[in-house]
Amino acid sequence: MNWLKLESLATLNKIISNSNLPKNKAIAIFKHSTHCPVSSAAKSRLELTWKYGDELPIYYLDLIAFREVSNQIASEFNINHQSPQLLVIKNGKCIYHASHISISVKELEKVI
User: What is the pTM of this model?
Assistant: First the structure.
């Protein structure tokens, strides 16, 4: 699994823009709280079951360190903030989101 860093609003804007490119099925964002054991468990589950490689780029956001970016994600996609949270962006829109124990590669397969 190749985690890409999401640490700025510029990177978020790049994700949104790149989600329109035909070469990308979509782009995933994992919002992680480094202080939360549920978030750590969800991250570990993703790492163990992820099978998309570069086909579905996945960005990692430490939402404690980069709260402004996390807040902008909630605003941009009109989705309530959760932690942990997995979002899938396609054509500039969030086409899938899940939080806590609902985060699952198996569920993600239904939309990819």
Answer: 0.93
Smallest CA-to-CA distance from 27 within 64, 68, 60 is with 60
Q: Which two tokens stand for residue 91?
A: 């054509």
pLDDT, tens digit, 9 for 90 and up, residues 3-19: 999 999 999 999 999 99
Could you tell me which residues come within 8 angstroms of residue 43 by beta carbon, excluding any fewer than 6 positions away?
30, 32, 84
Domains of the chain: 3-108 (3.40.30.10)
Residue-averaged pLDDT of the chain: 92
* Pair 99, 43: CB distance under 8 Å: no
pLDDT score at 47: 93
For residues 100 and 46, the answer to whether their CB atoms sit within 8 Å is no
Q: Which residue has the tokens 């500039």?
A: 92
Which tokens hold the place of 60?
A: 């990692």
